[in-house]
Q: What sequence folds into this?
């Protein structure tokens, strides 16, 4: 192998790809092309790992101004630093893993497979051949599981567990879109507990969503389930209907005019300090959920902290639970984890009195808050009204600020 050969191969691939039109191919030919490209990718991955090892041992990374060999590899391959560190770790092992090295040079292993096998075979060299064979026949997730088992059998279990336990964390940040993201590392038992709880709550929410006619992917329901589980405990609704007041608070900074109007005009703000902007109707919903302190502002100065209507008096709450044992939307029979809705929203000076409160399931609460469905009291009955036709475009476009 030399540089000239590598350049010729790359040139030919580039020329071929320039007028590659898979749409004109039969499906069977496309499948053969896919397999061919996958093989080239695997061969290239082998070449990358072998070269990366030499980049590290030769110290060329230092001369080229990189902070580490991994940083050099990350920049050269367009990968993250984490994957580059793992690639170098695997590359260093290859010298003592002949079966893996051989399969890799033959284009039979992807980079991920090499990393998995190397990590496990270094702990238990006897298992190497078996893992290389498995890589050719079994899907990646099965290979990963086998590698985990091999690693586990070669290490002190208690020590391994303790290492995870000491390294456990929950981390959150706001991404560029303004979304809050979470990342957590848990011990297997705590992870399994959380997973089981989230799954059960997800199933319950899925059944509710179906009944309310909301289509939501399972991963979205799982996110709702996590929030619901965590926050329900933080704001307990006691069986007797009394409330000790919210255990957690979300602060929202919003212009008074915007809160009353229901949407933002240029120059106004509605945001969770330290996290970012939220739509005004979300602020109104939070206000009704008793977990919010609204810092009503006039420009940048906080002019008042609005509290009226947030904490529902225990007697009103008791009466409400008594009156609305199930979601008040006609036909809905959800009776768990009901949310309290201010029928006339807080921002419209909706009072915190029994007449202006109703218990809704999560979905009907969502439809009312964000999709402009309405709840009206007609005599002693509740009426559920879909958005007016004129609103249709705004509904289709989703909630607006
Ligand atoms: Zn409902």
A:
């Amino acid at each position: 192998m030399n540089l000239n050969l590598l350049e010729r191969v790359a040139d030919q691939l580039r020329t071929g790809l320039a007028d590659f039109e898979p749409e004109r191919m039969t499906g069977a030919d496309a499948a053969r092309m896919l397999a061919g490209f996958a093989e080239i990718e695997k061969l290239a991955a082998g070449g990358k790992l072998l070269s990366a090892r030499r980049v590290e041992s030769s110290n060329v990374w230092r001369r080229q101004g990189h902070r580490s060999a991994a940083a050099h590899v990350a920049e050269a391959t367009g990968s993250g630093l984490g994957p580059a560190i793992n690639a170098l770790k695997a590359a260093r092992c290859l010298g003592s893993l002949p079966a893996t090295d051989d399969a890799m040079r033959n284009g039979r292993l992807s980079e991920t497979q090499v990393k998995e096998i190397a990590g496990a075979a270094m702990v238990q060299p006897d298992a190497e051949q078996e893992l290389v064979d498995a890589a050719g026949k079994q899907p990646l997730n099965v290979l990963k599981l086998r590698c985990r088992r091999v690693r586990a059998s070669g290490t002190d279990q208690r020590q391994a567990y303790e290492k995870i336990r000491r390294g456990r964390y929950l981390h959150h940040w706001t991404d560029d879109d303004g979304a809050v993201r979470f990342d957590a590392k848990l011990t297997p038992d705590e992870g399994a507990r959380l997973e089981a709880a989230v799954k059960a709550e997800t199933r319950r929410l899925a059944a509710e969503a179906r009944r309310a006619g909301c289509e939501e992917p399972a991963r979205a329901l799982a996110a709702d389930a996590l929030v619901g589980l965590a926050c329900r405990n933080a704001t307990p609704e006691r069986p007797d209907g009394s409330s000790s007041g919210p255990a957690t608070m979300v602060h929202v900074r919003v212009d008074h005019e915007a809160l009353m109007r229901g949407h933002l005009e240029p120059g106004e703000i509605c945001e969770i300090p330290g996290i970012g902007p939220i739509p005004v109707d979300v602020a109104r919903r939070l206000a009704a959920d008793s977990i919010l302190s609204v810092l009503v502002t006039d420009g940048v100065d906080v002019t008042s902290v609005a509290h009226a209507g947030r904490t529902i008096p225990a007697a009103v709450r008791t009466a409400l639970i008594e009156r609305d044992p199930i979601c008040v939307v006609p036909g809905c029979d959800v009776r768990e984890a009901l949310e309290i809705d201010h029928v006339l929203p807080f921002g419209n000076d909706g009072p915190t009195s029994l007449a202006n409160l109703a218990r809704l399931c999560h979905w009907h609460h969502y439809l009312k808050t964000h999709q402009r469905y309405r709840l009206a009291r007609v005599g002693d009955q509740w009426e559920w009204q879909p958005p007016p036709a004129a609103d249709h475009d705004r509904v289709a476009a989703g909630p607006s600020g």
In short: The longest strand covers residues 292-298. The CA atoms of residues 152 and 160 lie 8 Å apart.
